[in-house]
Amino acid sequence: xxxxxxxxxxxxxxxxxxxxxxxxxxxxxxxxxxxxxxxxxxxxxxxxxxxxxxxxxxxxxxxxxxxxxxxxxxxxxxxxxxxxxxxxxxxxxxxxxxxxxxxxxxxxxxxxxxxxxxxxxxxxxxxxxxxxxxxxxxxxxxxxxxxxxxxxxxxxxxxxxxxxxxxxxxxxxxxxxxxxxxxxxxxxxxxxxxxxxxxxxx
Length: 202
Prior knowledge:
By secondary structure, the protein is an alpha/beta fold.
């Protein structure tokens, strides 16, 4: 069973529909006990990083730490991936899970002398930087995925693929049983569905 966390900021309907399409049994929840019992956990995300504060208030942050420590698989999507880092300048007072080092920051207004539009919306390609990614198994190099975001995660040691927009940023991050994607796999056609299927089959 995959626990899909509801913190009133996720693209829940589309994510659950996509997971079911690739064969997953899901349960949408705000209950830390359900998170602790789940073999896999998904944290969707749309909107402001401030929304992740609710995860601490509900006791889900602590449940995720314990769940991950016991070996459960975890996937964060969009803001759900950013939450895996130490925090975001979008909401400086809100602490992330801190599983990966670094802060998420807004795209620069200017890049290489030209104005950079933000948010970054639309299809962009993934450049693999690690060959051992479970999430990217069977995904062709340069595969296109759908983004919509104004803040981005830094490139770190656990980054599995990057996307170029105003410089390189983390598109996929993965270390052992904890994974995250900045794009929306549920909106990313065959590439996104393949990655969700890979997660379901772990």
